[in-house]
Structures are given as C-alpha cells and as structure tokens.
Amino acid sequence: MNTILKSIDGINKLVKILLTFSLIVMTIIMILQVFSRFVLNIPLPWSEEATRYLGIYAVFFGAALAIRHNELISVEAIPDLLPKTVQRVLKMIVLVICIVFFAILLKYGIDLVSKVSIQKSPALQISMSIPYFSIPLGALLLILNAIAALIVVFKGGAEE
Fold this sequence. Notes:
The chain has 6 helices and no strands. It has helices spanning 2-38, 47-68, 77-81, 84-115, 129-132, 134-154. The protein has 160 residues and is mainly α. α1 (2-38) runs antiparallel to α2 and α4 packs antiparallel against α6. The chain has one domain (2-154). The chain is elongated. The chain crosses the membrane at residues 14-35, 50-68, 89-110, 130-154. One of its GO terms (biological process) is C4-dicarboxylate transport.
C-alpha cells in the first residue's frame, strides 16, 4: 500500500506544478487584459476564455490535491460526536461513494470529450475537447487521490 501512496504522491507533485503554472498564467493573462483594455484601449478578445479554461483545470487540480490531504470543506459536527472507529468507517464509506461518483464523472467526461471534439472555441479557436478534457482528467486525479485517502484511513489514519 505504501507503493500506491508513493506513486499517487509522485503524480501529485506534477499536479502541484500544473496547478501553480495554471494560476500564474491566469494571473498574467488577467493583468495583460486589464493593462490592454484600460491603458492601451485595445481589449484582448481571447483573455477571458483562456482564463476560464485555465481556471477549470485549476479547480480540478486543486480538488484532487485537497481530497488527498483531507482538506475539502465538510461538515464534521455529527461525525465528531461518534466514536473513533465509527468515524473511520463513516469516512471510508464517504470516500467509496466519492470514488463511485468520480468514476461516473470520468465515464461521462470521456463521452463528452469525444462529442465536442469537432467544435471550436469562439475566441481561441481551439478544439473544445481541450477544455472539456479537464473533466475526465480531473475525475481520474480525484479517483486516485480518493483511493490514497481511503488507504490512509484504512491503515488507521496515520501516514508515514
């Protein structure tokens, strides 16, 4: 199980780099757009679309990293009242349900990417399969990280 966790954490190093890169590029594009629109009086027609697509990827990358480290927002009031063993079982059930949901998202995301591949985005003129690819990619990363979180909970909650 440690090998699986190390493999997923290795993938997460790349995900962190991609998340950082997408946030930096989004920031640069937004600054360029503001400068271009209000100083040069020449708005960039592609900037809003590019930041939207980068933002979608960033959300999926961030969610995958957050689920791995148990940092997603959740209501813990009732589980905190339960005994530790029941909390662990409840957490494992929730993670399994999440994995099932992410698997459904992966399946339908792949279908959607194939359906929109002939469409072009309005401003960037790229295939719409590029922005829509964030759905199956994000779902796959969420599955991997939910499995890692499940392994940690199964091992007793302490990670080496």
